[in-house]
Amino acid sequence: MKPHLKEYAYQSIIEFIKCQTEQKDYAVIGLSGGIDSAVVSKLCCDALGPERVFNVIMPSGVSSAEDINDAQDLCNKFGMSYTMIHLDTITNAFTQVLNAENPILKGNIMARSRMIILYNYAHSMNGLVIGTGNKSELLTGYFTKYGDGGVDISPIGDLYKTEVRELAKLIHIPEHIISKSPSAGLRLGQTDEEDLGVRYCDLDEILYGFEQMKSADEIHDDTGIDMDVIDSIWDRYKSSTHKRKTPLIPKLGIRTIGCDWRE
């Protein structure tokens, strides 16, 4: 079985955004020109009105002109405000000081620089930083800890990538944004599916199988996906557990944060 968008998903997310932003003036979103951030931005627009949505476009030397134009066009189409900050000066300074020439390290610096910028605007505008990560990325750890993972709320965090595409069509995101090859925009020519080693349609079937507590053999029998691919996704899930949890604290008191202290 494949995951499919539930009929109540849109309205539930809208109510979630309204509830979580009651004490805030703005939803602050890093808008990349890709499908996930476009969907989140439009959901916030629907929930709060365009006047309470502030998008930050943060291109770098590896960003495509198409992505920048698509992000600007989306804001103009739905009447949302935005600003643009070029990242190269910031990330180059970090890279030089830290001697971080490794592409993964440079990508993490870029992602964490975006987080700093978003929280600067959120603090000054009495806003919340709205995450754009989907369930497929969260379960595989395909995000930077304290980078794109550093957010206040994650409206599409319980939607697989294939469900995000369904929702994008429902809320009238432009088709050329929906059909783009997904990319984190951290390296020239980089794509998510190449990094993950699997197509999102297959990835979501595997993860949905995990969600239903199926074994790797059962998922293979249901989907026909190669066992090596299924095992690699399971390894990604297990090795990225720390990204989905608050920092571990040794238990000393009656109730301990992150363990048995319920908020």
UniProtKB/TrEMBL annotation:
Residues reported to bind Mg(2+): 36, 137
Binding-site residues for ATP, renumbered to this chain: 30-37, 132, 161, 183
Pathway linked to the protein: Cofactor biosynthesis; NAD(+) biosynthesis; NAD(+) from deamido-NAD(+) (ammonia route): step 1/1
GO MF terms, alphabetically ordered: ATP binding; glutaminase activity; metal ion binding; NAD+ synthase (glutamine-hydrolyzing) activity; NAD+ synthase activity
Transmembrane regions: none
EC number: 6.3.1.5
Domain of life: Archaea
Record GO cellular component, one term: cytoplasm
Keyword terms: ATP-binding, Ligase, Magnesium, Metal-binding, NAD, Nucleotide-binding
CDD domains reported in the protein's UniProt record: NAD_synthase
Residues covered by the NAD/GMP synthase domain: 14-247
Functional note: Catalyzes the ATP-dependent amidation of deamido-NAD to form NAD. Uses ammonia as a nitrogen source.
HAMAP family xrefs: NadE_ammonia_dep
Name of the protein in question: NH(3)-dependent NAD(+) synthetase
Provenance organism: Methanomassiliicoccus intestinalis (strain Issoire-Mx1)
Name of the gene this protein is made from: nadE
